[in-house]
User: Fold this.
Amino acid sequence: MATGGTTIGNGRRSQPTFVVGSGPNGLTAAIILAQAGRRVTVFEAEQSIGGGARSAELTLPGFVHDICSAIHPLGVGSPVFRTFPLEKFGLQWVHPEIPLAHPLDDGSAAIMARSVEETAARLGEDAGNYRRLFDSPVKHWDEMLALVLSPRFPRHPGLLTRLGWEALQPVTRLAHRRFRGEHARALFAGLGAHAVLPLEHLGTSAIALALGVAGHAVGWPFPRGGAQQISNALAAYARSLGVEIRAGTRVTSLKELPRGAEVLCDITPRQLLNLGAQELPPALRRRLKRYRYGMGAYKVDWALSGPIPWRAEECRRAGTVHLGGTLEEIAATERAAWRGQPVHAPFVLLAQHTLFDPSRAPAGRHTAWAYCHVMNGSQEDMLTRIENQIERFAPGFRNLILARSVMPPAELESHNANLVGGDISGGSMDFRQMFLRMGARPSTTSPWRVYLCSSSTFPGPGVHGMCGYFAAQACLRSR
Assistant:
């Protein structure tokens, strides 16, 4: 792939800035650079743009499924997305009646409603503790989001200190210390399992708190028409600023780009290492090699003849449903998956978009999207176990299945090379690596100025674009 500069008025050649990868972070980086007057070209290896925010007819014609990400609380709340006119380019957020439901075997369900009060009122003896845990951070949501996604000195340092102490704790410890009832503990465990770690690990409560606060403050919405609409809106806005996007163009080596060029890479450390080979400085190569990937995902999509027949009525009004039973059950299955042990009743994260967005399926039909955690690169077949968990709380589910799309870790990685071994988080989110995520500093001693801008960098996974934002700002400062 030959790429050269463009002659400008005085005969000198202006050097374009390149972005490798068209995920939300790569497209955000391209937009920020274009807003600053840079000439930007984005290269995407796949035929469709979007990285982890893509959709396709994976099962039957007319059924739209999200290939990776499906629910986007950090997308609707993203500080940088808020500055982009994405609605003008077709992005519409759909808010389910209930963001999250967590059924139990007795036919009841804990819920995370938009209101802290409504959620707490259903938790019996734990109502007061739930309010005390979430009321204050929800009221200060904008500041909390800024601290998580773009740290600065807080206006309320006491709140940060208290929440910081809570966030450092393992989910199992905080849930037992804060709550007495099965419903509150299970709800908190399901939130914490998004850390893709054993719930006994330090810092897992940070994920539970962040997602819980987001659910109350901005909801757990998704884009009308599929996650692809996020990427399409970002790409359309980028093109309106003059960004060139080349899909189906794989960059296999930095040598394919002009020497001296600035290159922002929406890829994980392993891909950057492969791109750079011996061109990157030794210290950076060593750091990239030390980067660790986390558990993988085993994902299934279904085309259904009707809505899922949940026993708990609340689940029929929820966009997301967590299936795993009690805190103790979820902790045991996540621990076993982390260790590579057999998991017979996995914790399943399920989204049912068509209850609220009928555009994703033919009239009267529905879709479901779900995954469970497995050891990185696992080849174990989890399909029957995932469906058993759904049947456990929705008897008759299998009778509705018209078609399935099954994506074990290797299949996920084939759709998106950033999902190494099925890792959907861009690297392990354990305490050390999550809070010391790779930065966006350039490789200044190589023939190119290389910046990493994927979810492997601060502030980490989620469709929020902030990793791309920080990398673009670092690029602009270095110029």
Observations:
- The mean pLDDT is 91.
- Residues 304 and 401 are 5 Å apart (CA to CA).
- The first helix runs from residue 24 to 35.
